[in-house]
Amino acid sequence: MSEFLLYYRRPDPTTWVYMSSFLTIGLFFVFRRFWSIRNLDIVLLILLAPGLLMVNEGYRRQTRLARLASAEISAAANAIPIEAEVAPEEAAPAELPPTDETSSESETSPGSQPVTTDAPAEPESPPAPRELTAEELTKLQESDAYRRAAGLQRTGFITLFGIQFLVLLRMLLDPLMVRRPLLDPNLTTGGLNFLGISLFIFMMANVVASTPEIQQEQGPKLGPGYALINMLPAIPTRPISEAIAGAEPPTMAELTAAEQRRTMIAKIIAILAQSAVLIGILLIGNRHFGNLRAGAGCATLYLLMPYTAQMTGRVDHVVPAALILWAVLMYRKPLIAGLFIGAAAGLLYYPLFLLPLWCSFYWQRGVGRFAGAVLVALTVLMALLAFAGGEPFLTHVQRMFGVLNPNKGPNELTGIWELGWNPIWRLPVIVGYVILSFFFAVWPGQKNLGILISCSAALMVAAQFWHGYGGGLYMSWFLPLLLLTIFRPNLQDRVATKVIDGRSRPTRRSSTALDAA
Predict the structure, then answer these.
(1) DSSP 351-389
(2) Candidate from 53-62, 406-415, 452-461, 508-517 with smallest mean pLDDT
(3) Which of 216, 387, 509, 517 is most buried per CB count within 10 Å?
(4) 313 near 270, Cβ under 8 Å?
(5) What does the pLDDT average to over 262-269?
(6) Half-sphere exposure of 28 (CA within 13 A, CB side)
(7) Is the pLDDT of residue 2 over 60?
């Protein structure tokens, strides 16, 4: 009975997109106010899913074509014609059903070599694939099947960029939206908590049961960043198979002891980081928004997103998101917030561009503590690079901060930049991004917690457009902040001068009292 009662199969990604979309509309769509910003936000969140599906499916097809071509080339090099392995007279016994009688006869009869259990095992194991040479890869890329897969992937990236551009405009306009009516989810807090806990358990079970081999078919590899986090394998939870959308994961290859340890570490970090994201959202909703129901709704919506289901185990996605989110949670303490922002910027250098915004927020009070904590976190991470090995220490530091030539060729980049877009167009995008980062240092003049959240989300969304290694897929960097912006109330009174205590003031008051005495 337990074989079917306890049997669990991961839902197909396309099926989960439809199910999660219907649940999202039923739980968060404001039916009594059809023309509202909340409904527009829900539509934008749902529209992020089709592009993600197309990118993952296109990359999966390309990877399978490359593996098939590599196996065929290896078989030809080893002179193993697969069609000639089974002779015509031996094919008939092989078609017999594997009954107990035939298996027993094969073990006892001396003349039954063609039907022994060892004979058909050799043709089933394909030759070990190898890396394709540049000439072989070019020939593969000219095939019609590979071009169709690349076209599907390109269409997915363009779709993602189009929707994320609308999300960027939404975040830039958010500081101008002063009136924010209370629009709670269409479910009680208890129901939201129950649904969220159930989704979280299933997703973490997917992380535990996933194999690191699937990461080769999940998406582009990591680009420049922290060397130690790049050593960890990705643990994607998206089912992969020969079918179009995939239903069964492939058999996990044998892993060495070092690979098994890294896989276990990656799974633990992914589970802890996802837990930190959800706890951070709940605490922000309860402490800073004064609305636990809004926090529970925000956390549940994060778990319902198809992106979260497909990228649950991607450490490079979720760890920076958790650190930035906890910096928002601890914004009343500049020292702790600076440690979190510094850690996020050290792991993946894109959060470095948040510093002008956050320093401007703390400018009137707390900027020294915040900047000092950022420097401490970056220094500690730099010191740990001494244990990374592989490359010189200065090379690790250079990649940690992204100090590289941005003018790279399409063969050096991944994502949309290797699918037909000229990488030279990254340069004006990078310049515009830097201008936007420093522009937030002066606009808006008076920054509150709501502006801090929305502008941080805008910067992390804008980073997708020049990310040279799968930009557009790293939605976890801005998704929690985006959801908090959607659910946040009016936070105009949450400014640094009111919520942060000055360290020098008690000393001044005490000295004034002594002089008066």
Answers:
(1) GGGGHHHHHHHTTTTTHHHHHHHHHHHHHHHHHHGGGT-
(2) 508-517
(3) 216
(4) yes
(5) 89
(6) 31
(7) no
Rounded CA separation 386/365 (Å): 35
Mean per-residue pLDDT, 209-221: 55
Look at residue 422 and tell me whether its pLDDT is greater than 80: yes
Tokens of 82: 């697969």
Three-state SS for 68? Answer: helix
Residue 419 in 3-state DSSP?
coil
How high is the pLDDT of residue 390?
A: 76
pTM of the full structure: 0.84
Tell me: cis bond preceding 175? Omega within 30 of 0 counts.
no
132-146, 265-279, 280-294: which range is least confident on average?
Answer: 132-146
3-state secondary structure of 472: coil
Provide the greatest CA pair distance for the chain: 114
Which of 157, 473, 487 has its CA nearest to residue 311? 473
Tokens standing for 5?
């009662």
Count Cβ atoms below 10 Å from residue 186 Cβ, excluding itself: 15
DSSP string, 134-194: HHHHHHHHTSHHHHHHHHHHHHHHHHHHHHHHHHHHHHHHGGG---------SS-HHHHHH
Alpha helical stretches, state H, 210-305: 227-230, 257-283, 292-304
Residue with tokens 């107990």: 100
pLDDT for res 410: 67
Positive or negative torsion for Cα 330, 332, 338, 341: positive
Q: Residue 215: in which H helix or E strand, if any?
A: none
Q: In Å, how far are 250, 337, 342, 453 from 377, measured between CA atoms?
A: 40, 11, 5, 22
Range scoring the smallest mean pLDDT among 255-269, 352-366, 374-388, 482-496 = 255-269
Single-letter amino acid code for the residue at 188: T
Contacts of 443 (CB under 8 A, 6+ apart): none
**C-alpha closest to that of 177 among 494, 431, 489:** 489
How many C-beta atoms lie closer than 10 Å to residue 26's C-beta?
A: 12
Question: Please, where are the H alpha helices in 402-464?
Answer: 426-439, 449-462
3-state helix vs strand vs coil in the chain, percent to 5: 65, 0, 35
Confidence of residue 97 (pLDDT cuts 50, 70, 90): very low
Strand partners, 414: 469
Average pLDDT (491-510) is: 72
488/453 Cα distance (integer angstroms): 9
> What is the pLDDT confidence band of residue 238, given thresholds at 50, 70 and 90?
low
Residues 6+ apart with CB under 8 A from 113: 119
Give pLDDT tens digits for 13-31: 899 999 999 999 999 999 9
Cβ atoms of 480 and 273 within 8 Å: the answer is no
Torsions phi, psi of 469, nearest 5? -135, 60
